[in-house]
Structures are given as C-alpha cells and as structure tokens.
Design a protein that fits this description.
Structural class of chain A: mainly alpha
Largest sheet of chain A: 2 strands, antiparallel
CATH superfamily of chain B: Amidase signature (AS) domain
Structural class of chain B: alpha/beta
Number of strands of chain B: 11
Mean pLDDT of chain A: 87
Oligomer: heterodimer
Strand order of the largest sheet of chain B: 1-3-2-4-6-5-10-11-9-7-8
Number of strands of chain A: 2
Shape of chain B: globular
CATH architecture of chain B: Alpha-Beta Complex
Radius of gyration of chain A: 22 Å
CATH topology of one domain in chain A: Histone, subunit A
Strand content of chain A: 5-15%
Strand order of the largest sheet of chain A: 1-2
Chain lengths: 92, 458
C-alpha cells in the first residue's frame, strides 16, 4: 500500500491538494488500483516494441491565422490585454 | 404530433413525404424531453431556441430540394462535444459556466446536413466512468429501470435514444463509453476505428484512445450517422480518409475468443450471447474458436495508459480559461475536480513520474502492442470477433460507487478495442444486454452489416 506521504507527494505533482481527512480514502482506492495494474509485471515484454498510438502520426501544417472566438476563453479584457485570475503563489 | 419510436429513416420518410415539418418534429421531441427528463435526467442542457432555429433552416433545405437523410432530424450531443454558443460542461464543475466558442468538427459536419441539436447529454465527469453517477451534477437513470444506471460515460446519450427523447445521439468512447451504455439501455452503439472521426472540438480524455461515434435505434442508423461524421479533418492530425469496398456477406467467419467466457461473466448475458452465436450458425456463418491470449491484461494496461494521458490533457485546467474560476491554480483544481477525476490524474501522474515510468507506463505501451497483435492474428482468420459488451447487467444506482475495481471491471471487454484502435459495435440482443462485435480497422460497414444479420431476430 502506498504511504500517506506518497499520496501527498503525488497530489503535489498533480497540482491538487488532498485534505488530511481525504488521504486515507485516496490511499485505499489508489492502492487497490495499483495492486490490479501490477498484473502486467507477469509479462516479459523485453523484446516488444511500444505502441503509443495505433496510427502513424504526422504533423499537419496550416496557415498561421488568428481563429475567431479565442478571446472568449477568457473572462476579461483590459487595455488590449486579456486579464486572468492570479494562479501562481510563492510556496511559503 | 405524437412521437413514435422513430429511426432516422422513418423520420426522414415523414419529412420527405410532408407528413410533418422539422419544426413540428423538433417541437414534439422537446415536449417529450419536457415530459420524461425530469425523471430520467439524460440532459444537462436543452437548447430549445437553437434547435427550433435549426429546424426552420432544415425545413428550408427540404423545401429547396437539398435534403439528406439527416436533414431536420433531431439529435442529442454528449456534453463533451462543443456546440457553439451553448454551455459545455463535460459533466464537471470546472466547466459549469463554460460556453463553447466554436463547433466541434462533428457538429459542423452534421450541421451541413441540416441536423437539429436538441441538447447536451449527461456524462461521468470528463467521460471518466461507467455509470453516469460520476457526473458532477446528477446521475442519469436507465429508462428501462429507473433504479438502475444507464451505463457510462455516454449514459445521457444512450438514455435519450432509448427513451425516444431524440432520434439518435453522439457519444465518445475511450474505453467503452459508447458501447457499454448502449448495452445497458438497449440501443446500438458504434465506436469507429481510431482516426476515422475527427476529435476536434471534443473535450479530450485520453487522446490515443478517444473516438466519437453514434448511439442509434438500429445498425442502419449507425451507418448513416457514421458516414456523415467520418473523414479527414485538418484540425485533427490523426484523421484518415478511406472508403470501404462492397461487402460479400457469404462465408462469414465469426471468431469467438475463449478468454471472453470465463469467470466474472453474468450467466444471463452468457446465455444471450450463446443464443446469438446459434443464430449466426443458422444463417450459415462459420463460428471459429479463437484465442486472444493477452485479453486478461487489457484492463490493467488501459488503467495505466488512460490516466497517464488524462493527467496530461487535464493539465490545461489551471484556472486561467474556461469560465469563472477563483484565484490559484491548485485551489481551482482542488475545488472543481471531482474525486474520480483527481484519482485518475494522480494515478497518471504517478505512473509517469520518474522511477515508475518504465515499470508502469512504458510496460503498458509494450503490452498494448501484444493486445494489438492478438487482434491482428485473429483477423487473419475471421471477419469479426464476437463476445459480450459488458460482463454485468445494469447495476443499481449507488451499488458500485465505492469500489473502484468493481466499477472498472464493467469495461473489461471494451477497453482492448480502444487500445488496438479497432471499430466495434454493441447490438441489443435481450433486455439490457448487448452483443459486442469487433471488426478489423476501417471495416465499419462490414461490421454493421454482420451485426444487422441478427438484428431484432432474437
């Protein structure tokens, strides 16, 4: 089973805060899934290629023209700039 | 007018012969939603004004002789498909106030044919779930038994088709999200080949697995909608164009994997699937016993790859865009993501993190190759692979909420199809039981034709 410390650390990497009273539940659910996916360790895949996508991906180029409506993603405009909420804080 | 159990073809005939207009048809469906959806709760948004406007336009097209099979036909869209000017929530509090700024490519294609969009249907948050209970807003009920779930994640789309609140619906399928609810609600659900339908304008879950497809009354309708939405799109670099040659329905070979009939399969479902096999035998199809030896690893493989891709796709929800948010990225993510979504983001973050990447993610990509190879071997011998869509019947609302593995096991037969990128259909063969037919890549027409052979004959 993963430890409470690990859960806290994974949450931090995920940009999510896990409250103290949620850790135990998350630990249990997380562990039961991890236990299940460990099943793959039974297989020897040392000579097998990876499949990240089932089709060959090729980049498509298109004209770099502004798309309409993009500004509507944002809530406010100020002096010709898009205004957003503050999302970054110092850790301490 | 009164709503009947219209298929696309039937509604189309009515419109063509002037029995009713698209405005009348649309109004009738809106009334049906008004009447039934208080209880079923398939829709998050009903866009009445837009639907009636589109219906008027469709009537014009019909008058001017510019009618296709989908002109004026009312349909529903899963609420992770962008419809310009209409709220698109993906079942999440994060997008509760987000208004779509453009149309998904699928919507554009349907709109060109004069489709009428009645509304946006409920789903598990960001399409992560198999019951529609993980929607941040409310659970949808199975129209055939209101105490039970409609399946998920496209549960709202399946329920709306099943309850005649639309003629057909659009869903998305990352690990079974079209086929499993289709099976639970007694409708047809097609997950097309990866790359056949554009994902532009679909709120992404796991990009190497996501596909868009129809939920319909029958296989003929599924073919009609699929034809309308498929094709290459410069906005989605994974899309491919292809046409299928005519199909010879003589000497069909149907593969039945021994791995699909082991422990965990409900007896009633097993019996129904076996009687479907008998039907095919009687029609002269050859039943071939096959093996897909890595089937038992598909679900574990899926629950590494899908959360890994999700953790990356959902990084964009940082509080800067998509509607009103509070200050602070972490605060937004903590407050607006539901528990299931957080768990999957964390799972993906974990398997991609340094020290675990090779053991989990990289390994899963290799197992994915083995699963794909299993199917490639099978399709050298058979035309389609047959099995159950779901190992269990629709469960009661709340029954599997607390046990993540019990819920995930509902997708045991469907996830391998997404890992291999194949097309597959769920065909109703008994009450709330779907037959799962898997085809080889780019052979949707053949797959649906083979499904149609036993349609309504069981």
């Amino acid at each position: 089973m993963v430890s409470s410390e690990e859960i806290k650390n994974i949450a931090k990497l995920s940009n999510i805060e896990i409250k103290d009273d949620e850790i135990e539940e998350m630990r249990e659910k997380f562990s039961s899934i991890l236990e299940y996916i460990k099943k793959l360790q039974e297989l020897d895949v040392s000579n097998i290629e990876e499949t990240a996508s089932v089709i060959k991906l090729e980049s498509i180029m298109r004209e770099d023209v502004p798309q309409s409506g993009m500004k509507n993603y944002f809530l406010r405009e100020k002096n010709g700039y898009l205004e957003v909420n503050k999302i970054l804080y110092n850790e301490d | 007018m009164k709503i009947k159990d219209f298929t696309i073809k039937e509604a189309h005939e009515g419109l063509k012969n002037g029995e009713f207009t698209s405005v009348e048809l649309t109004q009738a469906y809106l009334e049906e939603i008004e009447k039934k959806d208080k209880e079923i709760k398939a829709f998050i948004t009903v866009n009445k004004d837009l639907a009636l406007e589109q219906a008027k336009r469709a009537d014009e097209m019909i008058k001017n002789g510019k009618m296709t099979l989908l002109t004026g036909i009312p349909c529903a869209l899963k609420d992770n498909v962008l419809l310009k000017g209409i709220k698109c929530t993906a079942g999440s509090k994060f997008l509760e106030n987000y208004i779509a700024t453009y149309n998904a490519s699928v919507v554009k294609k349907l709109e060109e044919q004069g489709a009428v969009f009645l509304g946006k249907t409920n789903l598990d948050e960001f399409a992560m779930g198999s019951s529609c209970e993980k929607s941040a807003f409310f659970p949808t009920k199975n129209p055939n038994d209101l105490e039970r779930v409609p399946g998920g994640s496209s549960g709202g789309s399946a329920a709306s088709v099943s309850a005649n609140m639309c003629v057909y619906a659009i869903g998305t399928d990352t690990g079974g999200s079209i086929r499993q609810p289709a099976s639970f609600c007694g409708v047809v659900g097609l997950k097309p080949t990866y790359g056949s339908v554009s994902r532009n304008g679909i709120i992404a879950f796991a990009s190497s697995l996501d596909q868009v497809g129809p939920l319909t009354k029958n296989t003929e309708d599924a073919q009609i909608v699929f034809e309308a939405i498929k094709g290459v799109d410069k906005m989605d670099s994974t899309t491919i164009d292809y046409t299928e040659e005519d199909i010879d329905l003589k000497n069909i070979k149907i593969g039945v994997p021994k791995e699909y009939f082991t422990t965990g399969l409900d007896k009633e479902i097993e019996d129904s699937v076996k009687s479907a096999i008998e039907k095919y035998k009687k029609l002269g199809a050859e039943i071939v016993n096959i093996s897909l030896p890595h089937s038992e690893y598909a679900l574990a493989c899926y629950y590494i790859i899908a959360p890994a891709e999700a953790s990356s796709n959902l990084a964009r929800f940082d509080g800067l865009r998509y509607g009103e948010n509070t200050d602070g990225s972490i605060k937004n993510r903590t407050e607006f993501f539901g528990k299931e979504v957080k768990k999957r983001i964390m799972l993906g973050t974990y398997t991609l993190s340094s020290g675990y990447y090779d053991a989990y993610y990289k390994k899963a990509l290799k197992v994915r190759t083995l699963i794909k190879n299993d199917f490639e071997e099978a399709f050298k011998k058979v035309d389609v692979v047959l099995g159950p869509t779901s190992p269990c019947l629709p469960f009661k609302i709340g029954e599997k909420m607390d046990d993540p593995m019990a819920m995930y096991l509902a997708d045991i037969y469907t996830v391998s199809v997404n890992l291999a990128g194949l097309p597959a259909v769920s065909l109703p063969i008994a009450n709330n039981i779907g037959l799962h037919l898997i085809g080889s890549s780019f052979k949707e027409k053949k797959l649906l034709k083979i499904a149609s052979l036993i349609e309504n004959k069981i």
